[in-house]
C-alpha cells in the first residue's frame, strides 16, 4: 500500500487517533441539526470553527453516535505523496 493511499474505517479509536494526531476535534456544521440529529459532521482542525465559525465543536460521544446512526464510514489519508502528515478526510456511506 502506498503511503498516500486512502483508507476507510468505521473504528472509533482509529478515527479519534487520526484526528487528534493532526490537531483535529469533532464538530458539526452549524444550522444542519434537526431534532435529535446532530447535523453534518466534520473534523475541525482550526480548533475554533472554520469559515466564519461555520463549525461548532461537539463531543466525541455525540460525533460517534451520529456517525453510527447515519451509517457512515471515514475515508482518510495518513500521508501526502511527499510524505507529510495528511488532513484529507471525507465521510462516506458504509
Verbal overview:
By secondary structure, this protein is α+β, with helices and mostly antiparallel strands. The protein has one domain. 21% of the residues lie in helices and 29% in strands. The chain is built from 2 helices and 6 strands; from the N terminus they run E-H-E-E-E-H-E-E. The chain has helices spanning 12-21, 60-69, and strands at 6-9, 25-29, 41-44, 55-57, 72-77, 89-93. The strands form 2 sheets. The protein has a 3-stranded antiparallel sheet with strand order 1-5-6. The protein is globular, with a radius of gyration of 13 Å. The protein starts with 5 loop residues before the first strand and ends with a strand. 19% of the residues are buried. The model has no long low-confidence stretch (mean pLDDT 90).
Describe the secondary-structure layout.
Blueprint lengths: L5 E4 L2 H10 L3 E5 L11 E4 L10 E3 L2 H10 L2 E6 L11 E5 L1
Antiparallel strand pairs: 1-5, 2-3, 2-4, 5-6
Name a few traits of the molecule:
94 residues, alpha+beta, 3-stranded antiparallel sheet, 2 helices, 21% helix, 29% strand
Number of helices: 2
Approximate helicity band: 10-25%
The separation of the N and C termini measures 21 Å
Stretches with pLDDT under 50, minimum 5 residues: none
Walk across the major sheet and give the strand order: 1-5-6
Mean pLDDT: 90
Major sheet characteristics: 3 strands, antiparallel
- As an assembly, this protein is single chain
Q: What is the CA-based Rg, rounded?
A: 13 Å
Strand content: 25-35%
Strand-pairing-aware structural class: alpha+beta
Query: Shape from CA axes?
Result: globular
Order of helices and strands: EHEEEHEE
Number of strands: 6
Whole-number count of domains: 1
Amino acid at each position: 500500500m502506498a503511503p498516500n493511499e486512502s483508507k476507510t474505517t468505521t473504528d472509533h479509536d482509529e478515527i479519534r487517533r487520526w484526528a487528534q494526531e493532526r490537531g483535529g476535534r469533532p464538530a458539526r456544521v452549524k444550522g444542519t441539526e434537526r431534532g435529535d440529529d446532530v447535523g453534518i459532521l466534520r473534523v475541525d482542525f482550526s480548533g475554533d470553527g472554520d469559515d466564519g465559525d461555520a463549525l461548532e465543536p461537539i463531543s466525541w460521544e455525540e460525533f460517534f453516535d451520529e456517525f453510527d446512526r447515519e451509517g457512515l464510514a471515514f475515508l482518510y489519508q495518513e500521508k501526502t505523496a511527499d510524505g507529510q502528515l495528511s488532513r484529507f478526510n471525507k465521510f462516506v456511506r458504509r
